[in-house]
Amino acid sequence: MSQNALPGFRDFYPAEMSERNHIVRAWREVARRYAFSEYDGPPLESLDLYTRKSGDEIVSQLYTFEDKGGRLVALRPEMTPTFARMVAARANALRKPVRWFSIPQLFRYERQQKGRLREHFQLNADIVGEADVTADAELLALAVDIMKELGLASSDVRARVSDRRLLQALLLHAGVPEAQLGVAYGAVDRMDREKRGDAEERLAAAGVPADAIRFLFELARPMTADALRAEYGGHPALQAHVALLDRYFAHLEALGVADWVQLDLSIVRGLAYYTGIVFELFDRRGEFRAICGGGRYDSLLDALGGVDEPALGFGMGDVVLGELLRARKLMPAAAPALDYWVAADDEALLPSVMSLAAALRTGGHSVEYALRPQKLGRQLKSAAAAGAVRAVILSATESANGRATVRTLADGSERVVALAQLRATPGGYGVVRGGDGFADVR
Amino acid sequence: MSQNALPGFRDFYPAEMSERNHIVRAWREVARRYAFSEYDGPPLESLDLYTRKSGDEIVSQLYTFEDKGGRLVALRPEMTPTFARMVAARANALRKPVRWFSIPQLFRYERQQKGRLREHFQLNADIVGEADVTADAELLALAVDIMKELGLASSDVRARVSDRRLLQALLLHAGVPEAQLGVAYGAVDRMDREKRGDAEERLAAAGVPADAIRFLFELARPMTADALRAEYGGHPALQAHVALLDRYFAHLEALGVADWVQLDLSIVRGLAYYTGIVFELFDRRGEFRAICGGGRYDSLLDALGGVDEPALGFGMGDVVLGELLRARKLMPAAAPALDYWVAADDEALLPSVMSLAAALRTGGHSVEYALRPQKLGRQLKSAAAAGAVRAVILSATESANGRATVRTLADGSERVVALAQLRATPGGYGVVRGGDGFADVR
Fold first, then answer.
1. Using one digit for the tens of pLDDT, what is the confidence trace for B47-71?
2. Could you say which of B20, B41, B119 has the minimum Cβ distance to residue A5?
3. How far is it, in rounded angstroms, from Cα A79 to Cα A87?
4. N or C: which end of chain A has fewer CB within 10 A?
């Protein structure tokens, strides 16, 4: 039997699972603070749910098959179609704005490349029912606050934002013919992966005037909102878009995340998909792929599920985020999982060991003990190997007097305490740290 | 587009997700107290991982297909084969006993029946590397403590236990020929779903003597460990098995779960699989299918992954458990998710609203506010609809004085507090309850 998972799939041993849970906990915690409610859908859906959004080309990238009932089905490659389906099914009953998040595992059959995975976990956060840029600011602040929660700073991560409506107005203003907007977006999108000459040739061949081409390459660079306003804020065809972006940046300032954000009109993202402000989060050193991407997709819910509501959302995967946290030494080592190891110097004390373990667990502590008779020294070695914070040592003599020794493993310090008090120790969720408040009865 | 999930698959809207998370939280919390470490594997595995354990018959119940690389793959129908594969791959490096748990979503293509699902979530908890019944007791105590954590009592749920080794010895002792043990196990297993006459006929035809058949039907009824000991404890071929079960019950007593447990030799479970103590948890009224099932499978890891280690484990699904909790009124309603709604009586205060929301979120609180300009009354209605515990009301006059009104929505009581104090309010993870310690500055 193969001892390996399928190519592109991960096994999460406890150490890797602890890292995954660290990220997932941050996602859940910050989403909770932003009053987003968690939902989930099936990992298997009808194939047409995906082709309807992305066309038939997507089939080549999916895990898709015919089930035993003759249905064409696919493992979910993204969450938005399921989200749209679920919102559409209850569109009228849902309180607006809908603020939902989910943490699905997603699947793509990508041609195998080094380190390229065929599954990942992805936080999806979406808002439905609000057209104003307040919602756009709220959504980006959520993404940025997740970075903060994980210990990243604005010197580590940058959010680049653009606005599809503004970009379109600027390109038209510069003389790009309406019919050539698609070609122009493509050139903007590929600007950092393509030779300028190649793009210029293609744009010229498509009929984009030379002036407009020059403008396009000047435009698609990081700039400040102030520079944008100074240059275009007075132009009738542009000022409404500039004012909207101004309000957006003011909201980001009020929400405390403006330091993280950079206007960058070269951020285009899915052409057939996004309709307004779009954004991506990157590590500032440029070592990794995008951490997160999203934006406003006001027409998509209508196309997918027949619900004519404005909407916006983002996806943030666990893989790049994990790489970045490890590179910045921000991924905590698996915490010692154990509050107490209960040991005894006499095999006959096993019932007392078990009974004390049960009492400590009832108090919320995590507890382990040797499942087979072992010498005390061996038990204490196991306690250390398990990462226990404290060992409780029962001995035949102390036990008869209703007492036990509590040893703190980090420094070897010991105290004798009343068993009754130990049994009643209230626990928290998590490892006991610092003083335990036991009275020393020696 | 269909607005439905595939047949047998569930959509988890926030209300259902909250119920699922309630169960998952209890699973994780109790597993943590028992010092089990979480792991996970891929939801898609090679088909042969499953046929190796269960034979080719299982293929008809699987979601299985050929992937684009020509591999026969299947959505995981159970976790044990993945667990065995992962343990085998690192068998020598792992600290023993291995105490691991996982919460996979599992998939079976069952013929569609009313209410029958094709997916569920299942807690899997396993111990590897300990042959003694201490481990069996520890494992069952974990399952029972999950019941307690969820608010169930021993009057709600019963654990029925048996021992395959004892049952075999008893059947041999009663005169069942060794070659007919399989037929006898089958009759025991089906005892409560089959007419006694039919079973007797089949057993007799297979060559089981009439005395042994009578014995078999007397045996497979709930009995006490005391009665077992009194009747068989002195018999040379049986006493070792009886003594083992006695120690098991004594351990369950020490672990504080003996009240929940009933010896019941009619519990057989997977014949080709279990080798020792087996158990199932049922609701005592008998309204639902089994909540949980498991036991000792000392040969399976060797057969599956080439690791000759004793092992035991159980699976506990979310579906029956959820039905039981709802029936016993123990499933909590989705908790109010919101600590604060920030409102204002003037549209111009939006930056202050956002800034206060950001400060409260930094303190760990969950916060929402209106994303579009609304009259104050409307905002407070939204706050109530969102289940907010408190509303903070900013007004143009109070705001200028650095103050805000905090209204507790449950009783409408209000206090005026300093904005600076409010911004610095430390939060917990979760909803603020009880007094908040604000100084009233009015």
1. 999 998 778 888 889 999 999 999 9
2. B41
3. 12
4. C
